Amino acid sequence: MDTAEKFDDKAPGNMKLADQIEGEQAMDETIRYPDQTVGTPYVDNPKMRMRDVEVFYGEKQAIHGVSLDIGKNEVVALIGPSGCGKSTFLRCLNRMNDTIDICQVKGNLHLEDQDLYDPKLDVVELRARVGMVFQKPNPFPKSIYDNVAYGPRIHGLANKKYDLDEIVETSLQKAGLWNEVKDRLHSPGTGLSGGQQQRLCIARTIAVSPEVVLMDEPCSALDPIATAKIEELIAELSESYTIAIVTHSMQQAARVSNRTAYFHLGRLVEMNDTDTVFTKPEHDLTEAYITGRFG
Amino acid sequence: MSKTTEQVRKSLAKRYRAERRFKAFGVGAIGFGLLALVLLFTDIIGKGHSAFFETYVKMEVTFDQDTLDISDVRDEEQLNFANYDGVIRNALREEFPSASGRQEKRELYSLISTGAGYELRDLLKDDPSLMGKSITLWLLADDDVDVYVKSAQDDRLESRLSDNQKSWIESLEAQDRVELQWNQSLFTHGDSREPELAGIWGAVTGSFFTMLVTLILSFPIGVAAAIYLEEFAPKNKFTDFIEVNINNLAAVPSIIFGLLGLAVIIGLFGLPRSVPVVGGIVLTLMTLPTIIISSRAAIKAVPPSIREAAMGLGASKMQVVLHHVLPLALPGMLTGAIIGMAQALGETAPLLMIGMVAFIVDVPGGPLDPSTVLPVQIYLWADSPEQSFVALTSAAIMVLLSFLIAMNTLAVFLRKRLERRW
Ligand SMILES: Nc1ncnc2c1ncn2[C@@H]1O[C@H](COP(=O)(O)OP(=O)(O)OP(=O)(O)O)[C@@H](O)[C@H]1O
Ligand SMILES: [Mg+2]
């Protein structure tokens, strides 16, 4: 137990952590717990209910028994150090992991009464209900109009040009982009600024009227002003959508979310009201993370 | 100056030297390539340019009804088979009455091409009122005369012409009745034993039909194979095996494809020999690997973020491919296809195997007519003994090269145009 002693000498702040597990275990091992999530991961009447989710990339396990609920019209923030499995978990929620051959998902995942991994379920239908916004803005190399209209088109949501126009307009309005692009709907979406592109991607996602919107670090490629706009947008969207957002910015999590989940090495350590997480975290690992001791 | 800076300075000088060395090497390599190209072009153009013009001789000919053996000028049949050569011979005899005896007369007649009669026929068909009249005409000269006229004074001594023929030509030249005119037949005729009548049009149309068949077969098959392998095929030992074999196919000597075509397409399926359809199928086998490999590279180059975006919206795999991957990969695929086609256009060996090397005079009217292709035509002419064919060979090479340059320019242009679809 050489390493543990040395570590404790240099970082007395971690003593408490190490002690909390069985006495003199090495720091490395202490981090590999807990099996029990602290806080309140469950809510009444959830929109999405996940139980004992395990994800494997080939032999390697990336998510260990994560259970949590996402309530209706709730914004849930997923935080945690890099590589802890936030994206992996988020991508289970609309089965984007299906595209990775070696990825295997186990556990119970439900969207209301629908089992997400029911073999009879068509992912096309699922992804129309659970939309996703990615880290890097990724508009199609098509016009702004076609970007937003793509989802409704492939799902056959609008039969007439008039209906489609309306969907495009309301989606762009909801995404707060309408005023900036209404005169150039037929110019390329790739010609917009980074922040505008990300809002275009959000408009594209909400154009198919999903029930849940997943966002994986949607602001990490944006400047503070564009970020502020997206955050405002998230607050507005939460009135009609359920949102799960992965973020590296704790301020952002604090600003936009109702509840926050803290992941650590593939485990859900703590899930609580956002206020609680940032003011009186129950778990030492959470505290260590939000006070910037690691991550 | 600190030790590090000193160290850095020293290594900098070394780095710059290495860079300069590398640059010089690159410039040298490109220079060598250009030099080879310039040599090739000067040689070909030097030899071939004269073939674009051919010698005509001005003669006064009389459409003599008796000689022509025509009783009714409106009778197509009679017009077609009339003795136009006799009229030309008369004109020649009148011009040079000194020629006597069979030998001399034969020499005299051979000054004018056997094809000159067709010119007279066409004239008479257009205007039957010419019958019985005399007109002054430029008649196509024989290829030996052509060579003689085109060669420099010193080289004329080595000509195959007899002394009589030389003196006749020189007397015509003195009267300004010998002229070089644009070689129309080069671009309108099929092959011929007479160099002055031989043209590349038969080979060009043959090449066109062959390329058409190749394109129609290889592009859809190649693109479909590439899409399947990239997007749908499971990644396992078997697909690895297929990949290795596709790459192998690209390196198989083309003559083997020709043997395959001979054994299977002609032997087994009984398709006719020498036809562009068979040539096209054989060249498809050859072009497919190029198209598949370049199409796969083009598909791989489509950013994954675009796929994710489409999939995240609920697009099915097929929709992702059709709506996003294919449009973005198409420029790369087209470029690959054009480069593959350019290779196929220059291909000779496999076509020799399937009989596209036959001597074919008629210009093919469709992909099922016997024909030859440009590179094979070049091969045939290069093999012919007549001196005039040397220039014709080079002229045909120039035409082939300009097609290749046009295709490769198109490939570059397409890539530039379509690279961003905006
Ligand atoms: N396609 C993949 N193949 C194999 N392993 C993967 C793959 N994607 C992720 N992983 C592994 O799964 C674990 C979780 O990755 P994930 O991307 O979910 O982390 P994250 O929390 O989103 O990190 P970040 O904050 O850096 O985005 C990591 O250890 C990573 O190496
Ligand atoms: Mg991530």
UniProtKB/TrEMBL annotation, chain A:
Superkingdom of origin: Bacteria
GO BP terms in the entry: phosphate ion transmembrane transport
Gene3D superfamilies from the UniProt entry: P-loop containing nucleotide triphosphate hydrolases
GO molecular function: ATP binding; ATP hydrolysis activity; phosphate transmembrane transporter activity
Keywords for this protein: ATP-binding, Nucleotide-binding, Phosphate transport, Transport
GO cellular component annotations of the record: membrane
Annotated ABC transporter domain residues: 48-290
Cross-referenced SMART domains: AAA (SM00382)
Protein name listed in UniProt: Phosphate ABC transporter ATP-binding protein
UniProtKB/TrEMBL annotation, chain B:
Record family assignment: Belongs to the binding-protein-dependent transport system permease family. CysTW subfamily.
Localization: Cell inner membrane; Cell membrane
Keyword Transmembrane among UniProt keywords: yes
Listed GO MF terms: phosphate transmembrane transporter activity
Annotated transmembrane regions: 21-41, 200-229, 249-271, 277-299, 320-345, 389-414
Record domain ABC transmembrane type-1: where: 204-411
Top-level taxon of the source organism: Bacteria
Keywords for the protein's UniProt record, in alphabetical order: Cell membrane, Membrane, Transmembrane, Transmembrane helix, Transport
Gene Ontology, cellular component aspect: plasma membrane
SUPFAM superfamilies: MetI-like
Protein name: Phosphate transport system permease protein PstA
Gene Ontology BP annotations: phosphate ion transmembrane transport
Gene name in the database record: pstA
Membrane-related topology note: Multi-pass membrane protein
